[in-house]
Amino acid sequence: MTWDPTTAIEALAAADAALWIWTPAEDQIRFTGATRPLGLGPLAPQCSGAAFTALTMPQDRALADRLLKPQAEGTEIAVRLRMRGCETCLWRGVWLEDGLRAAGIVALETKFAGADRDTLTGLLDRRTFLVRVAETLAQPGDYEVVVGDLDRLRRLNEALGHERADLVLSALGSRLSAAFSEDCSPARIGEDEFAVLVKRGGTGGGERMREALEQPLRMAGFDIYPTVSIGAVTAEGGPDAPDPAELLRRAELAVEQAKTAGRGGAAAYGRALESDSLSRLALEADLRNALVRGEIEPFFQPIVNLNTGAVAGFEALARWRHPRRGLVPPDEFLTLADEMGLMNELGLLMMTQAARQLDEWLTRHPNAGRLFCSVNLSVGEIERPHLVEDVARIIKETGLPRGALKLEVTEGDIMRDTARAAEVLKALREAGASLALDDFGTGFSSLSYLAKLPFDTLKIDRYFVLTMDKDEGSAKIVKSVVNLGRDLALEVVAEGVENAGLAQLLLADGCHYGQGFGYAPALPAQEAEVYLNESLADGVAPIKGRSA
What we know:
Layout: H1 5-14, E1 17-23, E2 28-33, E3 46-47, H2 49-54, H3 61-68, E4 76-82, E5 88-96, E6 101-108, H4 126-137, E7 141-150, H5 153-160, H6 162-179, E8 187-188, E9 193-199, H7 205-213, E10 217-219, E11 222-224, E12 228-237, H8 244-259, E13 266-268, H9 272-293, E14 296-305, E15 311-322, E16 326-328, H10 330-339, H11 343-364, E17 372-376, H12 387-398, E18 405-410, H13 411-416, H14 418-430, E19 434-440, H15 447-452, E20 457-460, H16 462-466, H17 472-487, E21 491-495, H18 500-509, E22 513-515, H19 525-538
Parallel strand pairs: 12-13, 15-17, 17-18, 18-19, 19-20, 20-21, 21-22
Antiparallel strand pairs: 1-2, 1-6, 2-3, 4-5, 5-6, 7-9, 7-12, 8-9, 10-11, 14-15, 14-22, 15-16
């Protein structure tokens, strides 16, 4: 059978759809297909960008401008626009040739005219999803409500900016719509949450949702690999069907459980989750109060000079003394703080307390030499407004010597926007802080960038150190990082020093400092000072092999 383009155009027209191509350099959109029903009127088959925007309803002008804004090649387009004199149109497409052209299909939304939809993705909104669930569950059958939560949307906003992150959400909504029929009521029910209602049997709704949402996409020149935490709850339809809002609550509770296993987890609702949920809610409330009540404090892990054996400094690590639960595991409350958006507040608290403690030690122990204290900047904190001002204020208030407060930054934060990071790092150093690149070797840093950034220290990830006496590859990586540090005039700290043998290997490689449970775990301030006193008295920090 011979392909007939005329037949394809007629099919588009019959479906109230059209092909479109947007060329920014020519300021021209060309259409083929059903243009008049789409509200494009006499300007079709082509019009300027301004004329196109003028044809949209005033409340959708910003979305129209977003559709026309050039993006990186491969960036997907999914926009729902209300045009003058017609129903809502769904615009789907992709950017070609790095912003030189965009092309796609626009279709008239008639099947569900009047349904309340999410303006960003074109999917059902939360309220309408609940209505659909109620209508479906009125019929007998076994059903499943599936909720997918896009992991680390806040980080995506920080990395790409809200506008590009919205484009990612829009593209994911388009993929979900393509993966599920309207009978499944695909919906966006929250800022980073999607939901579907499926009949049980065959491929599970969670698997289909994951397959749809976790495919990589290209945005602003980067390949993005979304991950989704998924929760599901089953229900039996009929006269005694459960309340839709309660079902959705249970599915979202399962999502929270899935997140405890890390990114990309999955969980099904069970009664045990109810008590866990109450515990989590209580812990969230306690964590907010903990920052005010001073329950979170720095513990200090010694960093030892491998050449002299003396304590050279400490790394301050956040610990929570809960009034009833005792010490809460760091992984538990730090993850919670990140989800609650409290990491910047927590980071500032740690920086302030660590600086004050270091100042006290330097005052009481003038023979401690150039003692320093490292503090981790949380993910994205390097972009926090007033970070430089806060650091400068803390150093001025405590009177710390230049470089005594060391800020540790991860490779991921640097690589996201290297030019911006370089400006902030330079300002932090001018404010009196020294800088360490944390977990070096586990990220994607470019050596050319590293040579230009104002770091003082490289920290070798503990995995390589722990295995360097057993694995030749790890040993070579450690030696290479030490040599790189020497060539760049950087000090090198090795984490994961568990015994004297590892310390000797690192010293032979020329590594400057060691840190790990072989010396000591992170200690409360009073115990850390005792350890410092022992080091000053004996001249060395002994390998004690203390457990975590």
